[in-house]
Amino acid sequence: MEKRDNLRSTKFVVTANLFLIAVKLLVALLTGSIAALAVLIDSIFDLAGSLLAYAGVKKGSEPPDSDHLYGHKKYETVSSLAQLALIAIAAIFIIGEALRRLASPIVLKIDLSDLAIMALTVIVDIGIVAYLKKKADTASPAIRASIGNYSSDILQNSLVLVGLFATGSGFFAADPIAALVVAILMLRVVYGVGRGAFGELTDSGPPMKQLERYAREIISVRGVKSFHKMRARTMAGEVRLDFHIHLDPKMPLSRSHAICEKVKQALLSEFPEVSEVLVHAEPATARFMAGPKFGT
């Protein structure tokens, strides 16, 4: 159900983006504002990003096959990085043009209709974020990238609205200043969301505090004396675990298997983010009784 919701959500975002592009293009043409042009360019790249998000979510929802035995979830992560790359390109362009206009100010004529049209874009962005948070699976990197982007857009479009108002009141530097702030906010989104997505592509694991919570759950299962070689990685917002547990050497194989299954189910039920658990059983020896070990 979540995968279907993600696909529907990305379709909704694409449609909303087309509307935002039309509205911002109208503002940019009516006013000549660089700040309005900045958010127009941002929306055009948002549209491209939304199409990438749709492709990533659709590909990521495909089951494992002979070429991708672990599934296709990382396509969502690649999609989010592609979205962020487009945002970064737009931000750099906006910074250059805003600095040029600060050096050579341009007189703009702004009226109430321009402000009303720009205010509409803020309302639409608020609606997009609310819709995604309610209807989409926010664990998806592609969806997280979209939410982060449109949350930033709310502030960006509000800044443009303020900039247009100030420009209409005679403070002509307000427009390029607003554009600069918009670009900086765009780069902030790129850094914040991109850091997590890059970590997933390089198989970074959950923080140690989270691993320690998993460790406590493992040890709490009756019959488990200790564990070692715990490894964890994140993929599309999900955590995949594998580790070796230490059991009584005299325990029958069937009992060992039952305990492994109990450990697996305990982790899956206690931690919603854990999607896969691989448990190996080993005989408990003095070597392994010093306590749990991560990654060794």
| CATH structural architecture of the largest domain | Up-down Bundle
Q: Name the structural class.
A: mainly alpha
> Which percent band covers the strand fraction?
5-15%
Distance between the amino and carboxyl termini: 37 Å
* Low-pLDDT sequence parts: none
Main CATH class of the largest domain: Mainly Alpha
Rounded radius of gyration (Å) = 25 Å
State the helical fraction.
55-70%
Number of domain units: 2
What series of H and E elements makes up the topology? Answer: HHHHHHHEEHE
Main β sheet profile: 3 strands, mixed
Count of helical regions: 8
How would you sum up the global shape?
elongated
- On the 0-100 scale, what is the average pLDDT? 80
Number of strands: 3
